[in-house]
């Protein structure tokens, strides 16, 4: 018996050693053999361990990598010995955006058997699930749907302004105000729930549930690392990236209410999601199950909440530090809005300076830091002849592109004039990509700016913002969360006009 155990242990150890040796043989000096410059050692790129211990933000880590290869169009790096390709050259980035058939998926992966919810999230899903889900979700974000949302967004802005009026000549944390506004607006649109988030208190169950859905600290760091880089271990360790009990309860309630045939289906995003198309074949229908609903509802809440809150707060921050821009924007707002009976949706589309301000905020603070893809078919970079092999993950740092002085002189100066000709030219040049690139770009690309522009117009018509002693310069970001979010909030002094 003892002998059998020893033989078993010996064989297992030999098999593991062989597997590791084969793995190392396959990948060791992978980039060197292809004459691709490399970053650091074979096992772990640079100081990536600081990211997963919560000391360094992942976006910052990518900027440091980008800056360490100033002359290279791309370079390779390794995570646990797996080769990654970091793309720096705008022309190559454009090619990746255009050639969706080669770069359909992200390299993050989650097996449906291991996590039936996360695996279906639009952010993680692979084809054909991703394509069908994206088609279905895209119908929710049409200009007509936005227009219909405007009165609701306005009513929440009005409540915010009533709160702000009480704080004339006081210092307030606009990040907190922005989060409260989004706690009211987003669950209303996506889930049809009234969060009743008050502005004078910081404890709202829905806000806390959304903020905690992704967790924080070392546990989230480890879970994110496993999902992103060693997905097979997720099942073994049974760790979960998502705390979705709150969304699950809401989805269950909606599905339950549909069983009652007298119930009239609403116009909320969740109603549209739950409303399955009768033309779908059985297999597709099976995919769009309750887990799919929970997955998409959570994805929308997570993907929207932090970026839109920070986007609003950081817009006010930059407009406070740059008073002449704030004044210019206010003048434009008053020029377009002379009385109370105006169609705000049409007006914000016409406001050129407002668009320039928003574009510049998204340049300095792209909020979604990186683009990540998995090459799903061998792809040759025409300019250099490098063959990116099937299965190779690639990384693009949006933040690093947006703050590279080669593309944006004096990159940390807030200057909306950079966008006086719009964003198209810079987008086409592959150097402006706040919402990513290609077919897998952000689903909220048109929605987020609409909400922020309305909120900015509403608040700047009534209030002026100035920096104060507590205003950080520059803003310090939280290194323990995946999104870009100010660690200590954004403190500004507010004056009633
Ligand atoms: C200022 C606000 C926002 C910024 C800067 C932002 C940025 C991004 C970026 C950079 C990506 C990755 C794109 C790529 O890989 O090419 C992304 C993906 C995504 N975003 Fe946003 N986002 C914002 C707001 C929103 C909102 C409001 C929603 C929800 C309506 C949303 C939903 C998503 C989804 C679902 C994806 C994954 C898309 C897919 O894989 O098909 N985002 N976002």
Account of the 3D structure:
With 497 residues, the chain is an alpha+beta fold. The chain has two domains: 1-29; 34-109 and 141-204 and 305-496, Cytochrome p450. It has 21 helices and nine strands. Helix 15 crosses helix 21 and helix 16 (323-336) runs antiparallel to helix 18 (352-364). Protoporphyrin IX containing FE binds at residues 122-123, 134, 299-300, 303-304, 307-308, 311, 366-368, 371, 398, 434-437, 440-444, 447-448.
Number of strands: 9
Do you know the CATH topology of the largest domain?
Cytochrome p450
**What's the arrangement of strands in the largest beta sheet?**
1-2-7-4
Straight-line distance between termini? 86 Å
- The CATH homologous superfamily of the largest domain corresponds to Cytochrome P450
- Overall tally of domains: 2
**Helix percentage:** 40-55%
Overall body shape: globular
Highest CATH level, the class of the largest domain = Mainly Alpha
| Secondary-structure class | alpha+beta
Q: Nearest-angstrom radius of gyration? A: 24 Å
For the biggest sheet, the summary is: 4 strands, mixed
Entry keywords:
globular; 2 domains; alpha+beta; 4-stranded mixed beta sheet; 9 strands; binds protoporphyrin IX containing FE; 3-stranded antiparallel beta sheet; 497 residues; Cytochrome p450; oxidoreductase
Brief characterization of the structure:
The protein contains 21 helices and 9 strands.
Secondary structure elements and their pairing?
Elements (H helix, E strand, L loop, with lengths): L1 H26 L2 H4 L14 H5 L5 H10 L6 E6 L2 E6 L2 H9 L30 H10 L4 H23 L4 E4 H18 L13 H8 L4 H13 L2 H6 L7 H15 L9 H6 L7 H6 L2 H32 L1 H14 L7 H7 L1 H13 L5 E5 L4 E2 L6 E2 L4 E5 H5 L21 H5 L18 H16 E4 L24 E6 L1
Parallel strand pairs: 2-7
Antiparallel strand pairs: 1-2, 3-9, 4-7, 5-6, 8-9
This protein binds protoporphyrin IX containing FE (HEM).
């Amino acid at each position: 018996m003892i002998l059998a155990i020893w033989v078993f242990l010996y064989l297992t150890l030999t098999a593991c050693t062989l597997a590791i040796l084969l793995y190392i043989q396959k990948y060791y000096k992978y980039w060197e053999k292809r004459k691709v410059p490399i970053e650091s050692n074979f096992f772990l790129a640079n100081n990536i361990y600081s990211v997963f211990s919560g000391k360094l933000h992942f976006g910052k880590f990518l900027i440091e990598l980008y800056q360490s290869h100033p002359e290279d169009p791309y370079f390779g790096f390794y995570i646990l010995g797996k080769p990654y390709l970091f793309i720096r050259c705008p022309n190559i980035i454009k090619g990746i955006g255009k050639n969706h058939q080669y770069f359909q998926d992200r390299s993050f992966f989650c097996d449906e058997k291991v996590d039936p919810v996360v695996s279906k999230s639009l952010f993680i899903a692979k084809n054909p699930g991703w394509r069908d889900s994206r088609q279905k979700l895209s119908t929710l974000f049409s200009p007509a749907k936005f227009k219909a949302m405007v009165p609701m967004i306005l009513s929440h802005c009005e409540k915010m302004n009533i709160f702000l009026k009480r704080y004339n000549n006081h210092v307030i944390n606009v990040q907190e105000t922005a989060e409260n506004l989004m706690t009211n607006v987003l669950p209303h649109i996506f889930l049809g729930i009234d969060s009743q988030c008050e502005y004078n208190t910081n404890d709202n169950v829905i806000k806390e549930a959304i903020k905690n859905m992704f967790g924080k600290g070392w546990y989230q760091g480890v879970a994110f690392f496993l999902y992103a880089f060693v997905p097979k271990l997720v099942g073994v360790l049974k760790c979960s990236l998502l705390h979705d009990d709150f969304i699950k309860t809401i989805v269950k309630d909606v599905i339950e209410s549909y069983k009652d045939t007298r119930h009239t289906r609403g116009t909320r995003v969740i109603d549209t999601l739950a409303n399955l198309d009768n033309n779908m074949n059985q297999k597709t229908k099976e995919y769009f199950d309750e887990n799919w609903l929970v997955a998409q509802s959570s994805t929308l809440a997570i993907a929207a909440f932090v970026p839109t809150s920070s986007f609003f707060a950081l817009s006010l921050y930059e407009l406070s530090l740059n008073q002449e821009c704030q004044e210019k924007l206010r003048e434009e707002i008053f020029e377009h809005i002379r009385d109370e009976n105006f169609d705000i949706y049409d007006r914000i589309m016409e406001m050129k300076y407002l668009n320039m301000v928003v574009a510049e905020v998204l340049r300095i603070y792209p909020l979604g830091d990186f683009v990540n893809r998995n090459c799903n078919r061998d792809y040759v970079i025409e300019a250099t002849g490098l063959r990116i092999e099937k299965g190779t993950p690639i990384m693009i740092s949006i933040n690093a592109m947006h703050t590279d002085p080669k593309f944006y002189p004096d990159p940390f100066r807030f200057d909306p004039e950079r966008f006086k000709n719009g964003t198209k030219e810079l987008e086409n040049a592959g150097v402006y990509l706040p919402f990513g690139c290609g077919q897998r770009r952000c689903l909220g690309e048109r929605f987020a700016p609409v909400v922020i522009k309305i909120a900015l117009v509403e608040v700047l018509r009534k209030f002026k913002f100035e920096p104060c002693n507590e205003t950080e310069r520059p803003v310090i970001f939280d290194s323990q969360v995946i999104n870009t979010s100010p660690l200590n909030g954004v403190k500004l002094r507010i004056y009633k006009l």
